[in-house]
């Protein structure tokens, strides 16, 4: 398969290149950047030295890139992928967007939370959270790869929602991310003296991942869903830990909860169940496509607390995109992804 990466100079794009190098059926043919056109990728990411002898191109002639690719991975800020996909609508090339443009069934929700007009509302797209939407991903023209906080949160909550064990209007997600989640461009909040030895919440009650989690949980449970989502920035490079709380329905026992997780994820390679009482940690999934999940039952408050850990750049972005690529191509889903986490 000839694949191209738009936005190869971003953290998500560079992580895609790292993973795709190990993919025996993927041949990277075009990598793009608008601000470093003509430069070699290893001058910007020395860790890729020796792996890619390629220069960055502009994506101005997107038709030529589209005609020369079977798949295009898009690692651009939201708002760009819809234009790219529209320009390539008549070509056979398939698209995996790591941004948010194709994650919503209802583009009015996207417009309300992202404050941009959606210019390709009728795009033939599917939501790319592999474990839960695998069948749709197989034949999709456009895959809207799930977001990072959302992947961790939805995977932790899905068994509870699917088995109707929780009140889906009582969910609280309290999540923490490493700073690579914010991308490579320097920002004051990510500056070392601001970040190091510090811990803070941001975008309380209005983070853009809120409607994405609500959409998936409402769909899985087929029940009205309302979520409080609070992200935090922690002074580490990679990793997300999501702590998800919900009220249990009457009569729900710890054993029913155990069974719900085992039933949904029994055959999922990339989901590792740590069981009731377990403690996932970001370091134990670092550099890998795994999502580690555990759950606790607070009998006193009659709530469940589900915990999940992912690497935001892998299962939260590039790894999940390659997993979706594998599904869409009919390859073994683990191709290029069955590596153990990097520990410590
Ligand atoms: N970082 C993460 O953990 C995750 C990121 N994502 C998503 O992946 C996408 C990329 O994120 P990330 O890699 O972190 O971001 P970065 O800020 O690190 O990279 C952004 C990329 O987009 C390019 N770019 C920026 N502005 C423009 C523009 N106006 N026109 C064309 N290209 C542009 C940059 O290229 P250049 O400046 O060289 O031209 C660069 O390659 C985003 O949509 C993000 O939401 C999804 C899940 C997790
Ligand atoms: C730490 C940090 O800033 N994280 C980003 C995560 C969003 C992201 O990277 O985008 P996706 O929607 O594509 O997952 C944020 O909170 O906006």
UniProtKB/TrEMBL annotation:
GO cellular component: cytoplasm
Residue positions of the active site: 148
Tagged with keyword NADP: yes
Example GO BP: L-arginine biosynthetic process
Pathway(s) the chain acts in: Amino-acid biosynthesis; L-arginine biosynthesis; N(2)-acetyl-L-ornithine from L-glutamate: step 3/4
The Semialdehyde dehydrogenase NAD-binding domain, residue ranges: 2-140
Subcellular localization(s) per the UniProt record: Cytoplasm
Cross-referenced InterPro entries: AGPR, AGPR_AS, AGPR_dimerisation_dom, AGPR_type-1, NAD(P)-bd_dom_sf, Semialdehyde_DH_NAD-bd
Catalytic activity from the UniProt record: N-acetyl-L-glutamate 5-semialdehyde + phosphate + NADP(+) = N-acetyl-L-glutamyl 5-phosphate + NADPH + H(+)
Database matches in SMART domains: Semialdhyde_dh (SM00859)
EC number: 1.2.1.38
GO MF annotations in UniProt: N-acetyl-gamma-glutamyl-phosphate reductase activity; NAD binding; NADP+ binding
Swiss-Prot/TrEMBL keywords: Amino-acid biosynthesis, Arginine biosynthesis, Cytoplasm, NADP, Oxidoreductase
Entry similarity comment: Belongs to the NAGSA dehydrogenase family. Type 1 subfamily.
UniProt name for this protein: N-acetyl-gamma-glutamyl-phosphate reductase
Native species: Selenomonas bovis
Name of the encoding gene: argC
């Amino acid at each position: 398969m000839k694949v191209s990466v738009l936005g190869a100079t971003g953290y998500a794009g560079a992580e895609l290149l790292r993973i795709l190098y190990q993919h025996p059926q993927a041949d990277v043919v075009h990598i793009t950047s608008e601000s470093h056109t003509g430069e070699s990728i290893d001058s910007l990411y020395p860790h890729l030295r020796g792996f890619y002898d390629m220069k960055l191109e502009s994506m101005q002639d997107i038709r030529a890139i589209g005609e020369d690719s079977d798949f295009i991975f898009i690692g651009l800020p939201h708002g760009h992928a819809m234009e790219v996909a529209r320009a390539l609508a008549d070509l056979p090339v398939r698209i995996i967007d790591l941004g948010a443009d194709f994650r919503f069934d209802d583009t009015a929700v996207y417009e309300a939370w992202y404050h941009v007009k959606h210019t390709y509302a009728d795009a033939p797209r599917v939501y790319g959270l592999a474990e839960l939407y695998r069948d749709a991903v197989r034949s999709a023209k456009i895959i809207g790869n799930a977001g990072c906080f959302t992947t961790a949160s939805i995977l932790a909550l899905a068994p509870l929602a699917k088995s109707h064990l929780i009140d889906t209007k009582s969910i609280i997600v309290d999540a923490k991310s490493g700073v690579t989640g914010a991308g490579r461009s320097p920002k004051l909040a990510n500056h070392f003296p601001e970040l190091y030895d510090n811990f803070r919440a941001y975008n309380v009650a209005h983070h853009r991942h809120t409607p994405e989690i609500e959409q998936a949980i409402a769909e899985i449970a087929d029940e009205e869903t309302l979520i409080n989502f609070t992200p935090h920035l922690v002074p580490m490079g990679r990793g997300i830990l999501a702590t998800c709380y919900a009220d249990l329905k009457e009569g729900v026992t710890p054993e029913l909860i155990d069974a719900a997780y085992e039933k949904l994820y029994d055959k999922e390679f990339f989901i590792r169940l740590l069981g009731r009482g377990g403690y996932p940690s970001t370091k134990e999934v670092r550099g890998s496509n795994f999502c580690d999940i555990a759950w606790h039952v607070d009998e006193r408050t009659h709530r469940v607390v589900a915990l999940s850990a992912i690497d935001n750049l892998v299962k939260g972005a590039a790894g999940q995109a390659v997993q979706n690529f594998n599904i869409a191509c009919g390859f073994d889903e683990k191709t290029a992804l069955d590596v153990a986490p990097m520990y410590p």
